[in-house]
């Protein structure tokens, strides 16, 4: 119990520090969008390329984990649609509920898996990212196109290009390709990727804290509670059950349960603004789920046998 708590505490302290820095206007409002951009386009891709290109899975076979993860993602999406009447929201509000219940925060996830497990865990998490990000983005875009304020005006070609250009997906594909072909980063370049990658988790967590919107959280209602219940309780339980059903090993089970216990991604707020969703509701779900994850992560990690 204590080992899990001590592994998780630094993660949420960094989130709290990011929130405190933002509230005191240090180093200034202009810093945080740039820091978020650097983390998304430079630091995390460097971490993923470095880790995946040099990963040695040994006896671990990620195919079972990926199959279980895909099945639960689709099941969770279907469950959100079935429970829509409970939220009592309009179309744009439902799109934010949907995103809040299915999306995961990559920054918090990688930070947590690095703290709890290190190399092999990061590798499996990164492989899962390469599957989940395209699937989740397609599901969210379809939902926004159907129920968002912009109706059917969304360009699916543009969204497909957006997915193809996703720096995390590109980094995963490069790292996996290098691993499969036996290539490695050049001797003088590898330390650069390691140094850049080492900045990913702390900077990402600081930007998560800076992005929390307390006013939006205070105005959240039934939809926020439903989204958080689905994301932070039902989702990890389904993933745990799927891991047992698929007969996955301890590490794969841990990664899957950790995945489910993560808070909602801040990208849901950005996508809601761009595609006619309920942006204030999305911000409220992100903020509340991030706070509640301080409880759900250690609880579900203990359940997974960490």
Overview of the structural elements:
This protein is an all-alpha fold and 306 residues long. It has a single domain (2-303), classed as Up-down Bundle (Na+/H+ antiporter like fold), CATH 1.20.1530.20. It has 16 helices and no strands. The chain has helices at 2-23, 31-54, 62-82, 84-87, 91-102, 106-116, 119-147, 156-164, 167-181, 190-198, 200-210, 214-218, 222-246, 250-261, 267-275, 279-303. The chain is globular, with a radius of gyration of 18 Å.
- Rg measurement, Å: 18 Å
Give the integer mean of the pLDDT values: 84
Kindly state the percentage of residues in helix: over 70%
Query: Quaternary status of these chains?
Result: single chain
Total domain modules: 1
Distance between the termini: 8 Å
In N-to-C order, the SSE pattern is HHHHHHHHHHHHHHHH
In brief, what are we looking at here?
The protein has 306 residues and is mainly alpha-helical. It has helices at 2-23, 31-54, 62-82, 84-87, 91-102, 106-116, 119-147, 156-164, 167-181, 190-198, 200-210, 214-218, 222-246, 250-261, 267-275, 279-303.
């Amino acid at each position: 119990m204590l080992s899990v708590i001590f592994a998780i505490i630094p993660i949420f302290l960094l989130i709290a520090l990011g929130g405190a820095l933002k509230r005191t206007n240090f180093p200034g409002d202009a810093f945080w969008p740039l820091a978020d951009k650097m983390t998304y386009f430079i630091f995390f891709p460097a971490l993923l390329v470095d880790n995946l290109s040099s990963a040695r899975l040994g006896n671990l076979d990620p195919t079972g984990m990926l199959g279980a993860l895909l099945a639960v993602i689709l099941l969770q999406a279907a469950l959100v649609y079935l429970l829509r009447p409970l939220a009592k929201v309009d179309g744009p509000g439902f799109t934010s509920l949907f995103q809040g219940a299915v999306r995961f925060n990559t920054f918090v996830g990688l930070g947590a898996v690095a703290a709890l497990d290190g190399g092999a865990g990061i590798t499996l998490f990164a492989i899962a990212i390469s599957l989940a990000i395209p699937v989740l983005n397609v599901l969210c875009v379809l939902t926004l196109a159907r129920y968002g304020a912009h109706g059917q005006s969304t360009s699916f070609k543009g969204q497909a290009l957006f997915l193809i250009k996703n720096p995390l997906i590109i980094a995963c594909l490069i790292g996996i390709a290098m691993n499969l072909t036996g290539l490695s980063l050049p001797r003088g370049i590898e330390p650069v990727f390691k140094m850049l990658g080492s900045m990913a988790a702390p900077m990402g967590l600081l930007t998560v804290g800076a992005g929390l919107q307390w006013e939006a959280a205070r105005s959240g209602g039934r939809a926020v509670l439903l989204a958080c219940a689905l994301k932070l309780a039902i989702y990890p339980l389904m993933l745990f059950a799927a891991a047992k059903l698929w007969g996955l090993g301890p590490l794969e089970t841990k990664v899957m349960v950790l995945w489910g216990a993560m808070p909602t991604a801040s990208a849901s707020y950005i996508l809601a603004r761009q595609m006619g969703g309920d942006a204030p509701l999305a911000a409220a779900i992100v903020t509340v789920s991030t706070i509640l994850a301080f409880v759900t992560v250690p609880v579900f990690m203990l359940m997974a046998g960490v």
